[in-house]
Every structure is written in structure tokens, then in C-alpha cells.
Amino acid sequence: MPTLTLRTVEMHTGGEPVRIVVDGYPAVAGATILEKRRYVTEHLDHLRRLLMFEPRGHADMYGVIPVAPDFPGADLAVLFMHNAGYSTMCGHATIAVGRWAIESGLIPAREPVTEFTLQVPAGPVRISATVHRGGVGRVAFQSVPAFVAHAGARVPVPGYGDITLDVAYGGAFYAFADAAAYGLRLPGSPVADLVAAAWATTGAVRAALPLSHPDGPDLEFLYGTILTDGDDAWSERPTANVCVFADRQVDRSPTGSGVTARIAIQHAAGLIPLGVERSFASIVGSSFTGKAVATTQIGGRPAVIVEVAGQAHYTGESVFTVEDDDPLPGFLLR
């Protein structure tokens, strides 16, 4: 007989999976959302492994845990989980949560646009969803302050030589580099080659470049590396990127927090002005749009608020059980 049952709603945004836990998850202790993130890491990580890993998930699964908000004015709060732990921000999952929260009745639907505030570990984000006859179409969110941490840094990457790259924060820190610097093309190169280059870069940047955030050490880590097609100057044509994050996890979407950080880089370099929208294409051809909508400051450094938009779709619902004699509740093979 099962000793545990978890129910989920299954979605994807731009091809990237979103598994939202809707029933069966224990209460999460903590006065703040960062305390809740630490609590699930220390006390409930077996549930992340159960839901993200095989045989119920896979190495590139992504999940959402709804929790009680503590930010004044927040309507909902969520934690994000993946193959290596718990992220501080996730744009594709935020877009999916926006649709699910409205269509499930957690947020009252208002036509033609429904707005609400979602608290994530990186801070509050404002969600705006188009609604018609109760159904949700495109969902946009306005980011936490995004900023450039390192511009034009030269970092030795084992196997590839010195690579010039930027590091920026869009709810999480990412390194950004042109795929051509590794002798690769985006699109065009094998995914395994892109992953190898990005993974080597993440390790090199972690060793070479310090990161800081005024909101504290919970946010001060490099989440991954995003390889781009190098097309950073504004254009009407989409620009491509691929994000390799956590433990070599490949984002099928254009990466909402990555688009946020990339817009921060482009705006700081004078390549895209406020209010000008750019389209970003993923490794599977899906797209998000992004634009800097306001300038601000964080910790005394210039920053921008970025609006990212995309569309999420349902793929099903699941009821996961664990039998008390199951010797393999969660594992990964690559």
C-alpha cells in the first residue's frame, strides 16, 4: 500500500516542464520565503528527489511548491525545484503559475487582464495575464531588479581557452557568452556540445568571479551559463540562447530569468532602450519577449525592471504514490 500520495498539475512553458504540487505536500515552516526555502532543503528534500528524479521525473524536470506568502500585498508564493535543489527565480514556471492560479480559481479572473503579485525567493513579481471567457492566454511578469555584475570579463575556461563573458542577475545570476567563442553555433551545434561548453564555463566563473547581492547570501550563487547567438543589438528578428543550469539541466524555454538578465546586459551596454521589446528564441524554437520597462537601483548599483512574456500549456495531471517497500523512490541516470 502507498505510504505517500502527491497530486500535481503538469504544464509546460515553451517546452520546459512545470510540475505544480497541488496536494499532499507537508506544511513548510518558516517566517519568510527564504526560511521556507531553507526548510525544504534541510527537511523535505526527499520529496524534491521523488518528484524530479526517475522513475517519476527525469534529469530535466522542473517543479513548483506553493507556500504561504509573507511579503505584504503578495497574493501567492511559490518555491522552485529542479535536479540540484531550489532556485530563487524561474520565469517559465512563473508564467505557468500565472495561468494555473487564475484558471484554478486561486486568483479571481478579471477580463481582459488579470493582475496579481507572486512572491518568489528572489522577491515579489507582478503578473499580468490576458483573460478571455475565463481562459488565460499570454502571461507577463515584471522582474525583481536586474543588474550586471561583471561586464566583459575574461575567464579561462578549461578546454576552451580564455572566454569573454558577462555575468548578470535576473532573479538568479547567470554567465552569458557567445557560442561562437567556443567554436559552436546556436542553433546548429549538438546539444551535448553546448552543454559541455556551458558547464565548463559555470565552473570556471564560480572559481574566478565573486558575486554579491544586497538582499543577502541566499541569492549569491551562479545558477548557470547561457550561451547566445551573439546577436545582442536590437533587431526585429529573434535572438537565440540556451541556458544550462543546476546540474547540467537544459532549459527548453528561452529562460525567463535569463531573458531578464540578458535585457539588463543589453540595456547597460546601450543596445536596447527602455520600452523596446525583443524576442528571444529557445533551443526548441519557442519564444519569449522581453523589454526593460523602468530603471531603478539596488544596493547602489543601476538596475532595470524587465517584463517577460510567454504562454504556458497544460499537459495533464498526476497522482504520484510511494509504496513502503519501494527501494528506488528517486534516482537519475544520464
How do the strands and helices of this protein lay out in sequence?
Blueprint: E1 2-13, E2 16-23, H1 33-43, H2 45-52, E3 63-67, E4 76-81, H3 91-103, E5 113-120, E6 123-132, E7 135-142, E8 147-157, E9 161-169, E10 173-178, H4 191-208, E11 222-228, E12 239-245, E13 249-250, H5 256-268, E14 278-281, E15 287-298, E16 301-310, E17 312-323
Please, could you describe this protein's structure?
The protein has a 17-stranded mixed β-sheet that branches. It has helices spanning 33-43, 45-52, 91-103, 191-208, 256-268, and strands at residues 2-13, 16-23, 63-67, 76-81, 113-120, 123-132, 135-142, 147-157, 161-169, 173-178, 222-228, 239-245, 249-250, 278-281, 287-298, 301-310, 312-323. The chain has two domains: 2-142 and 314-319, Diaminopimelate Epimerase, Chain A, domain 1; 147-310, Roll (Diaminopimelate Epimerase, Chain A, domain 1). It is α+β, with helices and mostly antiparallel strands. It contains five helices and 17 strands. The chain is globular, with a radius of gyration of 19 Å.
